[in-house]
Known about the structure:
2 copies of one chain form a homodimer.
Chain A: H1 3-6, H2 18-26, E1 32-36, E2 40-46, E3 54-61, E4 75-96, E5 103-110, H3 113-117, E6 134-139, E7 144-147, E8 152-163, E9 168-181, H4 196-212, E10 227-228, H5 229-241, H6 246-258, E11 269-271, E12 277-278, H7 284-301, H8 304-322, H9 350-370, H10 374-394, E13 396-397, E14 402-403, H11 413-422, H12 427-440, H13 449-461, H14 465-481, H15 517-523
Antiparallel strand pairs in A: 1-9, 2-3, 2-4, 4-7, 4-8, 4-9, 5-6, 5-8, 10-11, 11-12, 13-14
Amino acid sequence: MTEQAKMQASTAVIIRNEAFLEExxxxxxxxxxxxxxxxxxxxxxxxxxxxxxxxxxxxxxAAELEARSFxxxxxxxxxxxxxRVGYMxxxxxxxGSPPDAPLKLKLTFGEMPVEVAVPFxxxxxxxxxxxxxxxxxxxxxxxxxxxxPRRYSFRYVKVEIMATSQKYKVSFHDVGCRAxxxxxxxxxxxxxxxxxxxxxxxxxxxxxxxxxxxxxFEDGPxxxxxxxxxxxxxxxxxxxxxxNQNDLVKRCLYLFAGVPDEQGRVSANLFIQPSxxxxxxxxxxxxxxxxxxxxxxxxxxxxxxxLRELWPTAFRxxxxxxxxxxxxxxxxxxxxxxxxxxxxxxxxxxxPSQGVLLYTLKRAxxxxxxxxxxxxxxxxxxxxxxxxxxxxxxLWDPERRFFVSGSDRxxxxxxxxxxxxxxxxxxxxxxxxxxxxxxxxPEVGMMTPYxxxxxxxALLIAGCKxxxxxxxxxxxxxxxxxxxxxxWELYDPNNKSFSPYxxxxxxxxxxxxxxxxxxxxxxxxx
Amino acid sequence: MTEQAKMQASTAVIIRNEAFLEExxxxxxxxxxxxxxxxxxxxxxxxxxxxxxxxxxxxxxAAELEARSFxxxxxxxxxxxxxRVGYMxxxxxxxGSPPDAPLKLKLTFGEMPVEVAVPFxxxxxxxxxxxxxxxxxxxxxxxxxxxxPRRYSFRYVKVEIMATSQKYKVSFHDVGCRAxxxxxxxxxxxxxxxxxxxxxxxxxxxxxxxxxxxxxFEDGPxxxxxxxxxxxxxxxxxxxxxxNQNDLVKRCLYLFAGVPDEQGRVSANLFIQPSxxxxxxxxxxxxxxxxxxxxxxxxxxxxxxxLRELWPTAFRxxxxxxxxxxxxxxxxxxxxxxxxxxxxxxxxxxxPSQGVLLYTLKRAxxxxxxxxxxxxxxxxxxxxxxxxxxxxxxLWDPERRFFVSGSDRxxxxxxxxxxxxxxxxxxxxxxxxxxxxxxxxPEVGMMTPYxxxxxxxALLIAGCKxxxxxxxxxxxxxxxxxxxxxxWELYDPNNKSFSPYxxxxxxxxxxxxxxxxxxxxxxxxx
Lengths: 526, 526
């Protein structure tokens, strides 16, 4: 599968449900604004022991900035001390003669030191370089208050003075970031945990979630700044344990339900500006997560009216997924970009997708019962049993004692994890499957915190609490030790510069699907 | 003299005359706005026969732009068909999937083809690269109306699509330039001249002047966008023959008189934004041009009240200039950046500056009489005679029959021209001087249209009408043949890429001091 194929557009016709979209608009949150200030002037140094090879060294308190003046070719880096999402502003004044030429500045925003260390023009990956956060600005009249209109996601900002004139230099004052989030930190019950690592993971998770909570649940405030169903499901789970701002979940569900295609299929992600637009990417697993997310929402809120309104959309996703099931009771494998599961190029998606379908069917049965559609519930329950039996018959390899996937009978981590989450094996067997998975460690592994979440949750539902905690510490704990202020989109402890996009410069370092330790810790009482 | 020395700041204390500044504010013109549209899509080709080595070839009507779509790495160049000063705007729409990443565009504005042909990062001259007209912009949400907030001076605009994504391209619509000027073209009497070249020079002059008429007379709308006294004097002369918008001259005179230093000296130039600020550059000749400009203004308007209010400032410039005269009656030579005269590094400024002083003294006598200060007039007249005699005694070389300058007794074009304009020789001798100058062509020549103006006017007051017309055609006519839509700041027919700043990229191609052919043609009835 080429990346181009992954990105191939479909030509869906969107059927707008204006009532749903109006409800979503009504639920649009106000953003809370706070002014964040830089803490330090720093230098970035090459350090082969540091993540991406760059370390950040403090050189002065940020307050010292105002006394300094800068001419052509000078630069400095400010460290805001923590991850911020917001709008930067500062005063620029001149030192010396009246400014007889415009000022040219280049600003580079980085969530990580590498972003302010490595020039962006070295980036040659396959997704758009326009995600790299930079601005080149000209200022004709000074003194001037610069209020950058775009939102950035950053901890570090590098300011390069590209041109002044021979007659003047510049100084910078009142640098601030109007940080924005729809999360209300006051609503989070503090976690005082005996284990300081778990307490730390909880804190970083909440920070990650908060910075992704804007007027929708964004996947990442740096990139893609967009509402993805796969991220939404996990954000919502973390939210129920922390901010409990359930109207934001509700809003997002109404948005997805508001712009299905002509088959009733919900898109994998939505654009919110300039108006609500369904992306032309449809994914088997993500569409089913609408149903799973509605199940979680109802479980958290008991909001029966929303359930009633959105149930037809949720049921439709299951129906459409079932159309992909062949006569043997297994979802048809496919060479196209049909199911996400994980950023793992070698992964065959059949078994994990079958797992997602079983996982969702189980929840759909409950939802059908909750809306009083007993007949539908019974049909779905029969289908669940039928597919579970088919799964055991077709995909379970009794000799290797793993689930296999695709014509090559691939044994992947993702395949076992999703079958464990689907709970089609007896509890003890489920537990054995996961421990065997850890012991034998098949080659086609997990690439993202998103997939890692599912593994840890599978361990927890299988009763492997100690293993789950150990895994969380080994993964998110290592990320924290590597300097994560918020949890990263991608993290491979053995290849810390891994990027599915071609460069760690373009990775997101505050990413919704990585925020689940708070959910796992709090929900499972770790 | 190093460029650094030229740019050295003085530390003048400014004494603000608020009444004068209020009068200037009251006279602030409204800007007329018109929407200019691109005419053609063009390509720039290398051509050693063209100015700067680049020629512009039309490839399509601009209307064809809207049907085209552009992805990463694509670019196009629009030709607006004539010089424009204003604010560009356009719609950008997406083609293909919904835009799943920001759009990154680079815009480059050029008055000349070279500016959209040669990358700006090759510029390494000594004045600020921030004058080079470019923008790099990111657009997060599309469709989007881009309204660039900065004013540009251009005919060509290159649009480079730096990044889209693999899923979308972009198209451009409703491209326009909100062109601004305070000039009212309806006020100009048409010139129907038997000589089509003079008619053309008149037209281009007027266009140049109009594009420099903003809320003050700017020297160049691309660079420096500022009110310089040397430019103002020539713009005002051209204005009296064309737009006759004399309140704008008056406003500029009040501005200069409003911010003298503690000695009463007017600055060589003013910044208007964010408030009226006198630059810390003071030039012997430019300060005197305040007096000469007031003389011209009074001659054109007979506005006696303004004369009365501004006469003390005008007289003060003469007094200060006279302080620079030594015991022999000649202005002291100096190694510093004390008098401009021309962009000619080898030029000794003594003789031409003496000429400027004599030229101004003669006009100051008239002004003193006009305000009824007979005693002052008599004193100035005596001083004029004394200095004229000293000039003949000290600077006139009877053997070489030229005026000499400085301790090396330099014979320059500028020295002769300013002495001719000072009219200290009998008319016939003045004429002979100029013809001898042309015939012998001393090595230290003229470098700018500004200096060329003074030479042509000197020819005209000496009665050498044919020579003046021939010179105008050889210079401004050649510029027109080389493609000038508006007259250029710099033009050396023998070295068309000449720049005193290090690169033709940074030269201004619509420059006030080059707009005088209309004045010379109309005032002298050519």
